Amino acid sequence: MESACQSFEMLLSAYADAEVSPRERAQVEMHLAACAGCRARLEDLKALSAAVSGHLDVQADQADFSRFADEVFKRIGPEAPGLLERARIWWSEILAYHRTAVISSLATAAVTVAIAVPLVWRLASQNASQINPQVVLHQLRLENPALQPVVMDMGDGRTLIMLVDQSGSGAGDAVPQQLDTTPPTGGDL
Length: 189
Description:
Layout: H1 2-16, H2 22-34, H3 36-62, H4 68-76, H5 83-131, E1 134-136, E2 147-153, E3 159-165
Antiparallel strand pairs: 1-2, 2-3
Helix pairs in contact: 1-2, 1-3, 2-3
């Protein structure tokens, strides 16, 4: 019987802690029914386990865990991750949970830019040619030589004519002049 007890000796501790398979459990119980020495050994193991558990419970109750988390975090890493590391983590989480939305948004933005940039460029160039008036100077005979005409061709068939006082005396001193009101001919304004 002694050799059989040696083979079950290792299983007794696992049996006491209910950590054996159903097959092993049946074998240990069959051996315990026939062996008083192993039954006594099992009772000793159960008593030892209860004593150790009780001792650990008392120590755990006496321990002060109020600053435990603070001490652990102090030892783990006193520094917060840098800006680039946080951005990398943020981007990886975004891609992990919202990959489809991000890809579709980027594709939509790319298509929008591909369509909008040429349209805006074309509209801007068309409007620039219409808005930018050309300054055309023509000789007009005025009685006051300090007044100079400035003729602006607006590009849409309209023309703006302004008189600029070159004397430096200001607009209040200018005397209104009579302009030649005959229509221009042959491309002259």
